[in-house]
Specification:
Radius of gyration: 16 Å
Keywords: Membrane, Transmembrane, Transmembrane helix
Protein name: Permease
Strand order of the largest sheet: 2-1-3
Distance between the termini: 20 Å
Structural class: mainly alpha
Oligomer: single chain
């Protein structure tokens, strides 16, 4: 099964440069960066919004959530509630790791002469 197919236009994603992985309610989907922009314009509600996992925004989110999880899990800050919040903060980190291993690892970083979708 080829996992590197855009879920908006159903064309092959050729490299990491054009890949955007997004999550929505425990689902991870690959998109071309242009198709993801169209998807964001089509999505009108907060509940239906797709959140990008890779890229700068995803990296900052993962870093902040990892720091929060480490602080709450390895200290006694907030007691038992802090442990629960720490485990919940690991969710974006887990999504990013899954996104890398499922979608990004199999793609080259950049293809010089590629046909654009």
């Amino acid at each position: 099964m080829n996992t590197n197919i855009c879920r908006y236009c159903y064309k092959k994603i050729q490299d990491r440069d054009e890949l955007v992985t997004a999550s929505n309610w425990f689902r991870i989907r690959p998109y071309h960066y242009r198709c993801f922009e169209l998807l964001e314009q089509d999505t009108r509600t907060i509940a239906g919004a797709w959140t990008p996992i890779n890229g700068r925004v995803g990296l900052v989110t993962v870093f902040l959530m990892l720091v929060l999880a480490i602080v709450l899990l390895f200290t006694n800050l907030l007691g038992g509630i802090g442990d629960l919040v720490g485990f919940l903060a690991l969710y974006p980190v887990l999504l990013r790791i899954l996104s890398f291993f499922i979608f990004e690892m199999h793609l080259p970083k950049y293809v010089e002469n590629k046909n654009r979708p």
